[in-house]
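CORE FACILITY INTAKE
Project code: CF-77B
Contact: R.S. (postdoc)
Sample description: multi-component assembly, two entities in total
Requested service: structural model of the whole complex
Turnaround: standard
Below are the sequence entries exactly as provided by the requester. Do not edit them.
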Amino acid sequence: MFTNAGTSSFTTFLSRVAPEMLPGRRPLPPGMAADLAPHATTIVAIAAAEGVVMAGDRRATMGNLIAQRDIEKVHPADAYSLVGIAGTAGIGIELMRLFQVELEHYEKIEGAMLSLDGKANRLASMIRGNLGAAMQGLAVVPLFAGFDLAAADPARAGRIFSFDVTGGPYEETGYDAIGSGSLFAKSALKKRFRAGLSVDDATRLAVEALYDAADDDTATGGPDLTRRIYPVVMTATAEGTRRLTDTETAAIAEGVVAGRMENPGG
Amino acid sequence: MAMQFYASPEQIMRDRSELARKGIARGRSAVVLSYSGGVLFVAENLSSALHKVSEIYDRIGFAAVGRYNEFENLRRAGVRMADLNGLSYDRRDVTGRALANAFAQTLGAIFTEQSKPFEVEICVAEVGATPEADELYRLTYDGSVNDEPGRMAMGGQAEAITGVLKSQHRADMSLAEAVRVAVQALSTVGGEGGAARTIAANQLEVAVLDRQRIGRTFRRITGAALTALLDGDAAAEGQAADAAGGPAEPVVPTTEGHKPTSSAGSADLEDRPAEGGER
């Protein structure tokens, strides 16, 4: 079974030998399932001069309840790209793992990495595969960002792609946000974003935007100073992906909170 | 009606073995050995694009000699199997032993059932926490598996090369020493009148499974880093050792880095052991 399916794509291979492992291939009973499972919420991504920054809050909700306080929604997709998930948490995590394997698998089989656009297109087709579930309330919408190694202009190497339940990808300029608090996060970014930000400034801006989202959206969690739970912040630059350490994010989040003590609107 | 001549099963197997052995001995050799910082693969390969050595999974590498299309087919199957198992269970549950068994089954079935056996010899290597914990499996064309003691040579005049390796190899060697021993062993055969050859850096394919690294440990050594290792230049050796993941002192990897969601790292950019642990 492993030798015959001659493809470089792991999802194509799975669809031939183990279709039940693909989220979109499972039969769903009829009816709405929107309130059954926890939902992951806000993710923001900002293009910076040296690459791209992605940050996500830590809350997962189930209706009016907080399902999890410290869920991690921003992950490395491969060595140079990041993926954040919003929507049904379980399917989102599964899709994200599958996407990571998809990229790694291609790289191992072909001996070369997919282009950034190729990665975004793969993710779009995986989201499209989940359309049936999305129509029953189990939607997953990711945000994808990465450092484009083939970019002619290094200042434009940090690129962001958004998706909808029918696929995509849609390339965004400068910044984007997804999830329930994205409206507020994007409004904050609209006023504060400037092209050519340094990665450090973009990191601070991302945490500020998440604070604004948490300020107005109950499903988005703000920095939890008592439990020391801070947003997950990752960067993708020419040196690869990096997750900021807890100490680094704590310092940024505490700085943001201290600023809001004086001016709650930021 | 033409009469079919009777051939005994022994004769058929002997003929197939002979065919496979001849095919494997015609090609160039590959050497796999463990050293203090990991597992080293060195293959003589004129092509820089068609690899004899490659990555299967986080801590598992693959080296092969013989017919390219046949071992490439096996390699792809190995990557598919490893990725499928790693996704269904956990990244830690993908082992070299399981892969070696699967390859052995495939090769054994091909040897007995098909009219032509695969003319390949394969090494599946898994890097452990210490050189003693490294696993090197040799798989031959008929599906037999051997667990090798920290070093092995295959293809070409493998026996002569194994002899050199046996006398020179130690498990506590540095990367530079290990590369030199491997290249020395490869170059003892094939020279004119039994003399040693010189093998240029562009005729070698060198890769390591880096013991210190967390997540994907496979890394190719090419270009300037390889030339520096071969020349044995003291300063360059230091640089290459740095590139290979810091001090020779083995660090037992933690389990946290093996979580599937945090192991999307790749080759060439994880020269930061301190940060590697946090991903």
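Facility notes:
- The longest helix of chain B spans residues 68-88.
- The beta strands of chain B are 30-35, 38-44, 53-57, 60-66, 120-126, 135-139, 145-148, 151-154, 204-210, 218-221.
Invoice: internal transfer
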